Amino acid sequence: MPSFVKILLGAVTSLVVVGGIIASSPEGDPFDLPVTLITPTTVEVRSMAAVPAQATMRVVVAAADPAALDPVIGRLGLLGYWDARVGVTTQTEDAIYYREGFALEANNVMADLGLRVVPQPLVATVSDADASGDVVIVVTVP
Fold this sequence. Notes:
The chain is of the alpha/beta class. Helix content is 33%, strand content 13%.
């Protein structure tokens, strides 16, 4: 079908629709739409998509030297761990600790960051922010 015919059909269709709206309005005012054209609706969206662990896990990054924290926090953000918190520790070696039920997540963080430590259960105080995390990462070198 030639393009000028498509344009002509589009224009005619538009005029018919506008004419119908004008004819159906009480006083011929095209901006006075009948109430039946405006129907409130609600939509419920359900998703079967899995929520990534990064979105639900609380991560604490602790160091004795604050200069060691920025690169790790930046890398965690790039990996999807948006809510990483900062803590202070007196430990002098890299480590990863996890709360009960978060061993798999601790292993994932270890692999994501390329750390060569074995995640350990969090059974004692490691940093001043332990209560804020499911996984606590101790870093020593920036």
